[in-house]
Request: fold
Amino acid sequence: MTAVTPELIEKAYVALVSCDREEAVKYWSEDVRFQVPGRHAEAGWRVGLDDLLAFRRSLTAAAGGKFDVELVTSMINGNESMDVVKVHAVRPGAPEGSTSPYDVLDAVGVQVFRWSDGLIVEGIAGFFGDGSTNYDQWWSPLGADGERRDR
Reply:
């Protein structure tokens, strides 16, 4: 059994953010289940590595190619980890200096993972306080003015 360590967790995040399937499969199970938080079109269970990578690609595309995830700290208990993360993204075309939650995502949250033999097999995520509202608004197909926008 592979021990879950902070280094292993960091490698799993880097692999997922890269959207490189060959790298991701080293840390994420082919059958992974991951629950994307929120009340928006991208929310819900992602089943399988390909589905999870497709979500990650849509997230990166919606952020104009740059969706930052900062791993703040991890807590490990056997085959489970809970990671505190900070996320930041800005929608393409957002007005310079915008602080609108429809344009800018700044949130702190947690991701809880269950591991088996060095691979993440299941995960859930959530945001704290206004972060969950910010996440939903950021994913909204509407802008702050109520007009539809390109995703």
The helical segments are 6-18, 21-24, 49-62, 130-139.
